[in-house]
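Project outcomes to date are best conveyed with an example. Our students and postdoctoral researchers have been running inverse folding experiments weekly, and each run begins with a structure described purely in tokens. The record below, which covers 130 residues, was selected by the lab manager from last quarter's runs and is presented without edits.
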């Protein structure tokens, strides 16, 4: 029988940590996903869950260049658990989402919008483009 491990999240970026290796970058980041609801007594509640993200390869370059703390982000990935040992010898387990695709949902900042190249028009396409 086939298996499926897919996580879809929309939230706001928290911490961002970029590590560079010989074969590329790895970005570790956190994403806050909030749920708002009203209790029976009328009290408004906001419940936030933090997810650990791991971004590798070319997507890590894009993340490093364009994503900032506070940005709204849509991510698709797979969840995994890994373990590590603390300096005191204690075993720790952590759940993280390995990001396979993402889309930035935050509006461009004014400085970024002024620096952006103009969008291509149909005049920029080659004649044989169909």
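After processing, the design step wrote out the following sequence:
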């Amino acid at each position: 029988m086939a298996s499926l491990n897919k996580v879809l999240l929309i939230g706001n970026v928290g911490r961002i940590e970029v590590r560079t290796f010989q074969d590329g970058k790895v970005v570790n980041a956190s994403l806050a996903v909030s749920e708002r609801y009203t209790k029976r007594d009328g009290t408004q509640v906001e419940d936030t869950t933090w997810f650990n993200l791991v971004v590798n390869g070319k997507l890590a370059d894009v993340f490093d260049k364009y994503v900032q703390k506070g940005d709204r982000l849509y991510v698709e990935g797979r969840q995994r658990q890994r373990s590590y040992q603390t300096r005191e010898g204690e075993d720790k387990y952590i759940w993280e989402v390995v990001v396979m695709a993402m889309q930035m949902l935050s509006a461009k900042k004014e400085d970024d919008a002024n620096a952006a190249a103009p969008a291509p028009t149909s005049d920029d396409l080659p004649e044989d483009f169909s």
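The CA atoms of residues 113 and 126 lie 27 Å apart. The domain at 7-110 is CATH 2.40.50.140 (OB fold (Dihydrolipoamide Acetyltransferase, E2P)). The training component of this project remains on track.
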